[in-house]
Amino acid sequence: MVNIVGNVKPEDDYTHPLGPETNFNESVYFNFFDPVQGRGGFIRMGNRANEGYAELTVIIYNPDGSALFNYKKPSISHNDSWDAGGGRIEVLVPGEKIRTAYTGAALYMANPRDMQDPSKAFKSNPFKKISVDLIHTGVGPIYGHVGSMDDGNDFARAHYEQHMHVTGTIEIEGEAGVIQINGNGLRDHSWGPRYWQSIRSYRWLTGNYGDDLGMVLSVVGDHRGGMFHKGDQFLKVTDLALQTDYEPGTSFHRSFTVDVTLENGDQHQVLGKVKGFVPLRNRRSEQITYIGEGMTEYTLDGNRVGYGLSEYLDQPGDIV
């Protein structure tokens, strides 16, 4: 039986009744990283049935620094499943095992920084057919919360996460054979009203050092937090200090150092080095939110190496 921290239930892995809010969103997110293959990525599906569409994002990081990317807004009319635009999420064992799949086209970018200008990027880079079929199996506790309807939260009223072991296959047009994936990742599930513009700028660092050890470190506005899982043990982060090195003249993070203190008194230092980077953005009306997605190699306390994603979200005029 999986360890659960918070008021989440295994059956929460399924979709929930569609809320009355115009911007009701139910999204699932799964990242994965194979250190042997030097590949990673994520798939995210968010149902916005009251607005008539889903949001589907797929990223594959290649070992040479190139990346495959697509973002779609396929039409949907219900919140009964995540199945649109070539993407599909299937709950195999609630709380424990999920299948993610995508079959369709993805933009191939030899230089993923082309995505700074999405219109130009989609016009100047070729598409390739890809097929992704992955099984995500829980290796750490589920942790999160389910909030009330009147809590005023417009970003993640209900939300939980879990570290995973990930196996499966990727096929990419032009590459011989099937790419076997065997690594780790993190999953995230949330539902309720959501606008990307309703949250403060944040830094969200997720990583795995194997099945037995994973972390999430976060800086949201003035709040510092996160967790480590050591096997089934759940340990809150009580303090962290983050220092980031950016590419000159940009807001693109390329490395960082985090000093972490856990609730049991343990102290760790995490060094992050970005191995692949895609700059994304989300536009609503005239406001643009910038989101830097980095496939990251982590070194814990100078000796243990792991992989994960570092996501830096910036709202205009906000300071982290």
H-E order: EEEEEEEEHEEEEEEEEEEEE
Structural class call reads mainly beta
**How many separate domains make up the residues?**
1
State the share of residues found in helices, binned by percent. under 10%
CATH class identity: Mainly Beta
State the strand order across the main sheet.
Answer: 2-3-4-5-8-9-11-12
CATH homologous superfamily placement: AttH-like domain
Low-confidence stretches: 149-155
Notes on the structure:
- It contains one helix and 20 strands.
- An eight-stranded antiparallel beta barrel has the order 2-3-4-5-8-9-11-12. Strands 13-14-15-16-17-18-19-20 form an eight-stranded antiparallel barrel.
- The protein is 2% helix and 62% strand.
- The protein has one helix at 118-124, and strands at 4-6, 24-34, 39-48, 53-61, 67-72, 82-84, 87-93, 97-109, 127-138, 142-146, 158-172, 179-193, 202-208, 213-220, 223-230, 233-246, 253-262, 267-284, 287-300, 304-314.
- It is mainly β.
- The relative contact order is 0.16.
- The chain has a single domain (12-314), classed as AttH-like domain (AttH-like fold, Beta Barrel).
